TrEMBL record, chains A, B:
This is Phosphoribosylformylglycinamidine synthase subunit PurS. One of its GO terms (cellular component) is cytoplasm. It catalyses: N(2)-formyl-N(1)-(5-phospho-beta-D-ribosyl)glycinamide + L-glutamine + ATP + H2O = 2-formamido-N(1)-(5-O-phospho-beta-D-ribosyl)acetamidine + L-glutamate + ADP + phosphate + H(+). The lineage of its organism: Bacteria, Pseudomonadati, Pseudomonadota, Alphaproteobacteria, Hyphomicrobiales. It comes from the Bacteria. It is found in: Cytoplasm.
Length: 80, 80
């Protein structure tokens, strides 16, 4: 079973890396970009066969390791 | 206009960071994870009003800066 966990910064949390990308895009001549925020994505392959078990595993992984829930949101998608 | 660019490693490219996450999940007692591959996600706000122009800007950004097309794939989604 395949799944994707997307981790993004919460609104209001400063993102210096995103700001740097904005600046770099401007320097490279890519115009029309108002703002950039960077996040992480984890493509996970699971042994679990059923959806409920897969979601429980992914939630544990996200809470324990993949996301810092103080400053980050995470979203779980089971692709199938 | 909002958009998301997702950058992932091409198949066959080694992902030591993903391997490290796999190991860490095992140590933390999260079982049932067969493999992990890490990628990046960019949430981009655009000035452009029309879809075609937005997609052209995003393609330029991805090709020039966000993705290393030798080892990475990118996917553009205009969220609206």
């Amino acid at each position: 079973m395949k799944a994707r966990v997307t981790v993004t910064l919460k609104t209001g949390v400063l993102d210096p890396q995103g700001k740097a990308i904005e600046g770099a895009l401007k320097s490279l001549g890519v115009s029309g970009v108002a703002s950039v925020r960077q996040g992480k994505v984890f493509d996970i392959e699971l042994d679990a066969g059923d959806q409920a078990k897969a979601e429980a595993t992914l939630k544990a992984a996200a809470e324990k390791l993949l996301a810092n829930t103080v400053i980050e949101n995470y979203r779980i998608e089971v692709v199938g």
